[in-house]
Amino acid sequence: QRPQLDFLMIRSDGTAKPVYYGFSVLNEIFSTPEILYARDEGGVAIVAGKSTDGRRINIIASFYDRALADSALRGDGGGGRGGLGSREAEIVLENLPLDSVAEGVEIKRYVVDDEKNIEMVESTTVLKKDVTDKLPLAFKATVPSVVHLQVTIK
Questions:
Q1: Which of 48, 63, 131, 141 could form a disulfide with 59 if both were Cys (CB 3.0 to 4.6 A apart)?
Q2: In a 3-state reduction of DSSP, which class is residue 94?
Q3: What is the dihedral of CA 112, 113, 119, 125, to 10 degrees?
Q4: Which residues, in sequence order, are CB contacts of 103 under 8 Å at separation 6+?
Q5: Where do the H-state alpha helices sit in 18-65?
Q6: What angle do CA 82, 58, 22 make, to 5 degrees?
């Protein structure tokens, strides 16, 4: 019988675990090297970056259970699967370069969780006439999950 090995990001049969997809999404931030925002607070870690030409913004948000994460770090039996729940989330894009918007702003939302492996769950375009200096993006996020918002100015 083949021994069961447990690797961080892949199973012994070579298939990827959800954590692999989470790190793959996080890697997207490197395509937008100008970091605009980074914060870890209240069970949500967010990093946002902008491309050098200013036409693309990547926002990566990791939604997690703070108590479960703290328990795992202490080594007192935590680190197992948390109770999957959901929470309302809103990210507001501010200071968009309105003079650069020719057609509109395209927003794609990708999710990594226990059911989705970098799956696009929403794609929308806000037309130029509706783009303002503050653009709220509201959605429901499962806990734990990683959400990638890809914003393209067209």
A1: 48
A2: strand
A3: -70
A4: 125, 127, 128, 154
A5: 18-27
A6: 30
The full length of the chain comes to 154
- Identify the pLDDT of residue 79: 46
Whether 57 and 36 have beta carbons less than 8 Å apart is answered as yes
For the chain, percent of residues with pLDDT exceeding 70: 83
Give the three-state DSSP class for 86.
strand
pLDDT in tens, 98-150: 888 999 999 999 999 888 899 999 999 999 999 998 999 999 998 889 999 99
Angstrom CA distances, 84 to 14, 59, 87, 121, stand at 26, 22, 10, 18
- Per the CB < 8 A criterion, the answer to whether 105 and 135 are in contact is yes
